[in-house]
Design goal:
Length: 265
């Protein structure tokens, strides 16, 4: 039986009873709610929630669950000439979502930025018979095994001719972003690079809910790696967090500002 953590959406295989704790929420980069650890299951989630789709252009859709569930991130379906990629994951995989994904050509590969968005990744991979790419540095946070999981190492992995995963670290050791080189370039960043509420700046944190920053050195390393690729657009983890123009320039400016603030202290 599969149980889902109501606070982060991570799925656990159980013997019929709820786990005593969620390893993801017990880590300082997440949190256990004041009301305590709560659990749900697939059928309850599907009965009370649905998935909302948004088309950003012909090649990019975002998917989020409504009403809000767990961390409330969105996933992306990236359509390329070489096949579709699911970037990041949400817990709710309902019948409507399966039908829409199938109608759009299925999923050829799944890649996830970091463990907070692993959720029910194993079930998406099984449903669409897709390899599931996770950075090996974060393998300790995999709570359910799957034959579809492919652990990758190093700082980059080319999935398709114009799609590359980049390990930036920071929030998690294996924290990664997806770079799509088509046109002026697009970066799907999860919250490894966090878009701020005004959608005109970014920031970086080790723990967002507990407001623990990254070091100047780490942010400098992230900015250095991103300076080597071109991307006019950046899509963050949450709805509305879309930088549509000059995103690569904005990332470099904001990283310098972040480092300056740390040094000022």
């Amino acid at each position: 039986m599969i149980k889902l953590c109501s606070a982060c959406g991570t799925s656990y295989e159980t013997a019929g009873h709820s786990p005593e704790q969620c390893n993801i929420c017990d880590d300082e980069r997440q949190y256990v709610p004041l009301v305590g650890q709560k659990w749900t299951d697939f059928y309850t989630l599907m009965a009370t929630h649905a998935n909302k789709w948004q088309q950003h252009d012909a090649g990019l859709f975002s998917i989020k669950t409504v009403p809000a569930f767990a961390i409330n991130q969105r996933a992306f379906l990236l359509r390329t000439d070489e096949g579709n990629i699911l970037w990041d994951c949400i817990a709710n995989l309902d019948d409507a979502t399966r039908a829409l994904v199938d109608a759009l050509g299925g999923i050829k590969a799944i890649a996830i930025s970091h463990p907070h968005y692993y959720t029910t990744m194993q079930d998406w991979a099984e449903a669409f018979n897709a390899p599931l790419y996770l950075h090996a540095s974060d393998s300790e946070w995999i709570m359910r095994e799957s034959p579809h999981i492919k652990l990758w190492k190093g700082d980059s992995l080319r999935l398709f001719s114009d799609v590359t995963l980049m390990r930036l670290g920071g929030h998690f050791a294996g924290g990664s972003v997806l770079h799509w080189a088509q046109g002026e370039g697009t970066l799907l960043a999860g919250d490894i690079v966090q878009v701020t509420p005004g959608a005109d700046a970014v920031s970086f944190m080790w723990s967002y809910p507990n407001m623990l920053p990254l070091s100047a050195h780490t942010v400098g390393e992230i900015a250095c790696r991103l300076s080597k690729v071109k991307f006019s657009r950046l899509f963050g983890a949450f709805e509305g967090q879309n930088i549509q123009v000059d995103a690569d320039t904005i990332v470099q400016y904001c990283s310098e500002k972040y480092i300056s603030c740390l040094k000022r202290a």
